[in-house]
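Now for one record.
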Amino acid sequence: MIEKRSPFSRKLGTFIDLSEAELNILTSLHGRRKSYTARAEMVYQGQLDQQAFVLAEGWACSYRLLQSGERQIVDFQIPGDFLGLRSVLFHLAGQCIEPITEVQASLFNANDLMDVFTRNPRLGRAVLWAASRDDSMVIEHLVGMGRRNAVERTAHLLLELGARLMLVGRGTKAGYDCPLSQYQLADVLGLSAVHVNRVLRELREEKLVTFRSGRVDITNYDGLITLANFDHDYLDHYRPFTKQAHLLDRYTS
C-alpha cells in the first residue's frame, strides 16, 4: 500500500490535494515493483515499447550515448520521479536509464497511464504537471551549459537537487545525502572530473557548500543561491495547482 507521505505521493501532492480515491489509483501504479542493482540497464537507447517506471527508492540517471562511446547525462532521477515517461508514450526510448545505486521501481505501460487519465483527470493533470516540470529542468540545464560558468553551473545543480529532494522529504536547506561521483557530476555538467574537483574545492573554501563522502552540506544557503542566480520558479514548487486547477476542473469534472 502506498503511503500518503511516500516520495511519489508527496510530489504529486504538491500539485493537487490527493483524495483517498486518487491515493488508491497511485497504489495500483505501484503494483509491479522491481529491484535493480547499480549500473544495471533499465532502458537502452532505441528500445521499442518499453515500460516506464516510478522510482520508489534509490537514484538513477538518464543519458545519451554518442557514437564515440562518450555519454552526456541528461538528468538524475530521485525517489518519486518518473523514468521513461515520454518514451513509453512515443514507443521509442530516446535515452538510456541506469541506476546509480540499488533502486526499487514500479513498472507501468502506456495503457496503465491512459487508464489513470481516464479514471481521474485531476490526477492525470498532476502527472502532466510533474512531467512538464521535468522538461523545465532539462531546459535549465541547457541554459547552464551555454551561459553559466563552471562554478555557477555546479552550484545551480546542487541547489536544484536539494530543492527536488526537499519536495519529497529527502533533504533540507542544510543538505542532503547524495551518491553521485565527481565523474557523474562531470557528465551532466559538461566538465572534466578534474575541473569538477577544483570547483567543489572552491565552493568549500568559500564556505558555501561541502560535498564529501556521499553528503552535500550547505553552509551558506542564501550565498549559494546568490552565486548561482538560482530561481525556484522553473521548478514550480511554490506555485501549486490552485487557480489553474479550478479553471481546468470546469472541463474535467
